[in-house]
Design a protein that fits this description.
The protein is an alpha/beta fold. The protein is 28% helix and 27% strand. α7 packs parallel to α8.
Length: 345
């Protein structure tokens, strides 16, 4: 079979290669991948500017849905034909303080699908059965391929941030992550402002269609003026920064109210400069967010099943795995929204 392999450390060093079709070991399942999404971290792996450990040569890709085709020794409660999605924390120690508290996403020994273990940019992948979640019939395989980023968003927005009904929330960055974040915030009763730049014009229109109360091109009106008007001078209650832009974060810090919250979801890919004294003077509660947990996945699946989050409108392109480079280029150029690869041979 063909798999998209990061074959060595360093920028680039990724290509479609003939790789052996995998077999599940004890406690593992083999999954026929239906669709697999391109994540910003896949681009960071391509450019070798990500802090999460990567072990080349490795098949990349970690956002996917599929069907079980084979189960390994000792696997119970799963069988061939089951529709599934999978968490990306392939392994973790299980005994450190983070694991014991249920935050295995922060385990120092965590090894990730598509980074350390072969991932889903291939027709078949292997995962531990313990990482699986059933994909309901009401959720399509295409939507299922977006469950991993949605689970990460739920972890950031629901589990790490405290949004109350009536809060004014700023979502900076109207990519697929930002537009899903918008919907999760709306589902919790927030009024949401989504911001972007001229290249995001179509995405901002999509934000309106998905329920944004306000959208803003920050090159046409200053964010400060817009927030002043919307909040009557108070500032937004919550910032959910999805763009991974230093300028967007700096502007967001100016826009959040005193004693507000700021959650960083997007990755910058490099060190940035931030005026931390503003955080002190405003008593802003700042948190980062990394990955997801079992609870994040269950909540994400429920939100889609209940119609609180729409994922299909976020998919702009479906390309065969053989056109992965075109897909990566589209992603980097901010053309389209969520780009999905079809690895089926």
């Amino acid at each position: 079979m063909k798999g998209l392999v990061k074959y060595a450390a360093g920028p680039g060093n990724m290509e479609l290669r003939e790789v052996p079709e995998p077999k599940p070991g004890p406690g593992e399942v083999k999954i026929a991948v239906q669709y697999t999404g391109i994540c910003g971290s896949d681009l960071h792996i391509y450019h070798s500017d990500i802090a999460i450990p990567v072990r080349p040569p490795v098949i990349t890709g970690h956002e996917f849905s599929g069907t079980i085709v084979e189960v390994g020794l000792g696997v119970e409660h799963w069988k061939p034909g089951d529709r599934v999605v999978s968490e990306t924390a392939y392994s973790y120690c299980g005994v450190c303080i983070h694991c014991r508290e249920g935050f295995y996403n922060l385990c120092n020994q965590r090894k990730t699908l598509g980074y350390w273990f072969n991932g889903a940019f291939a027709p078949y992948t292997i995962v531990p059965a313990a990482r699986l979640h059933p994909l309901p019939d009401s959720i399509s395989f295409l939507e299922g391929a977006l469950m991993e980023p949605l689970a990460c968003i739920v972890h950031a927005v629901v589990e790490l941030t405290h949004i109350q009904a009536g809060d004014t929330v700023l979502v900076s960055g109207p990519g697929a992550i930002g537009l899903a974040t918008l919907q999760v915030a709306k589902a919790h009763g927030a009024h949401v402002l989504v911001t972007g730049t001229p290249v995001d014009a179509e995405r901002l229109e999509k934000a309106k269609a998905l329920g944004a109360d306000w959208t803003l091109d920050v090159t046409k009106q200053s964010l400060g003026e817009a927030v002043e008007e919307i909040t009557r001078g108070v500032g937004v209650d919550v910032v959910l920064e999805c763009s991974g832009s230093e300028k967007a974060l700096q502007d967001a810090l100016l826009s959040v109210r005193k004693r507000g919250q700021l959650t960083q979801i997007g990755l910058f890919g490099k060190p940035i400069t931030l005026d931390f004294e503003r955080i002190c003077y405003k008593e802003v509660k700042v948190t980062g967010s990394l990955g997801s947990r079992w609870t994040s996945w269950e909540r994400a699946l429920q939100m889609v099943a209940q119609g609180q989050v729409q994922l299909k409108p976020l998919v702009s392109d479906i390309l065969p795995l053989t056109e992965w480079k075109k897909a990566f280029d589209l992603f980097e150029a901010k053309k389209g929204l969520k780009i999905v690869l079809d690895p089926k041979e």
